[in-house]
Model the fold of this input.
Amino acid sequence: MLIKKVLLDVDPGIDDAVALCLAMFDPQLDVVAVTAVGGNVPPDQATRNVQAIIEQLDPPRWPRIGVASLPELGLPTRSAQLHGPDGLGNSNFQVSELQHRHPSEKVICDEVRVAPGEVTIVALGPLTNIARAFQRDPALPELVGQIVMMGGTLSGPGNITPAAEFNIYCDPESARGVFRSPATKTLVPIDITHQVSFGYDLLEKLPDETTRAGRFLRRILPFLFRSYRQELGFESIRLNDAVALVSALHPELFEIELAAADIELSGELTTGATVFDRRRHREWRTNLAVATKVDIASVRDHVLRGLAAAGAASQT
Ligand code: BDR
Ligand code: CA
Done:
């Protein structure tokens, strides 16, 4: 069995937590580290949530944890409300004191250097940590296996402003740094992740309460259904980060195209927009791959089967 080394960079967030649950119980993955980044919640809370998720799930191998800190320009005050003030649906998980507190960007540098060309970074929050790791170690972009980034919009509207997707909007400077870097990277935009929705029947399909994964998911997911209904008027939820994780493991379920993209830093209405050069005679250099189509049923099925497997592997 081919085991893939992955590092998850997350700003939990309920969909980040679901992605972590899928990854940490996937026997084909070696999750070398989980690095926290501010986004859905401020940096301290993001770190605390990463710890809480790992402690609650208690996976067979505990990954290293990276500690989040504020981006240079701070985080926008208009943050996502879908995940609750604590990011995990007000679940109020207790956490123990972290023994070794290493900054996320250091953990990223260490893990990529230990296995050059082998580590897939799955970036499910703002790109602050990845950009910092690249500044700290300028050779790093070429040592990363690949980066899969959940974020941006391809042609549809944004989800935090009319033009911008949340992860990119939180730290556009870092996103630009990563987009312009020579690392091999794939963007999974909300145009794609939004196509895979989950109805209330998801709650019945979760692993049961006798499993750690089941107890955890049953504590956080009802909140997300409530906020999608109250805030957006939807009867289903999107698990954007889980879909991006599936794309890293099963790219064959997506149509992927090469593209030339950059980030708007300072537009009055468009800060954080992802801009693609789609001119007939494109002048920008191709710098990433982008998911443009998704096999919706198969991705949904992978998520459901992954959650069932997490339950089976976390019986108590
Ligand atoms: C992204 O923003 C966050 O709120 C989610 O966790 C996801 O990473 C979707 O735009
Ligand atoms: Ca996220």
